[in-house]
Amino acid sequence: MQKLIYFKIFALFSLIVLILGTKTALIANQLQLSNVDLLAKDQPILGNSKASVHVIVFEEPKCPGCKEFTNLVFPLLKKNFIETHKILYTVIPVSFLPDSMPAAIAWLCVFNQEKTYAKPGLFFKYMDYMYANQPSESENWITEENLVKFAEETSSDIRLD
Question: Are 89 and 45 spatial neighbours (Cβ–Cβ below 8 Å)?
Fold first, then answer.
């Protein structure tokens, strides 16, 4: 049953990618590639920088849909496309739900530590851990105390000073 759910989610995501890819191909004639590069510049990234497909996702820390995508679809993308060097994958943290800005900032702080202290993957570990332990969207769970707790439980490589 769970495999069927994964398959449906993956099929839906694939359809969305196909539709967006087609639309993007039509729009690409109007946009310069450098605009896409500017959007993704200095953001958390995984994969082959020379891949012909660049997937850019906007992740909201409190969003239950983002949580579901990260927990269910992203592992399939990572295994089948990122680790096989077929795509470049970029995450752009955003905040559009009430009180989520501190979490988006915390993600970027961890990403900056990743770059500064040469700790690859730290951002994705923190984001994954936060989504795996995300309370309800209606709760005001994004507090300094919770963000620090999530960081401590994610990795000792995350500096809290």
Answer: yes
User: What six digits make up the tokens of 59?
Assistant: 């992740």
**Which tokens in the block code for residue 44?**
């958390």
pLDDT digits (tens, 9 = 90+) for 18-73: 444 444 444 444 445 556 667 778 899 999 988 888 899 999 999 999 999 999 99
* Residue 122 backbone phi and psi in degrees, to 5: -60, -40
Q: Give the residue from 68, 67, 43, 65 showing the smallest Cα distance to 55.
A: 43
Model confidence pTM above 0.85: no
Instruction: Tell me if residue 109 falls in helix, strand or coil.
Output: helix
Q: CA triplet 116, 120, 123: central angle to 5 degrees? A: 85
pLDDT at 6 over 80: no
DSSP character string of 55-108: EEEEE-TT-HHHHHIIIIIHHHHIIIIITTTSEEEEEEE---STT-HHHHHHHH
Is 113:122 a contact under the CB 8 Å cutoff? yes
pLDDT at site 37: 66
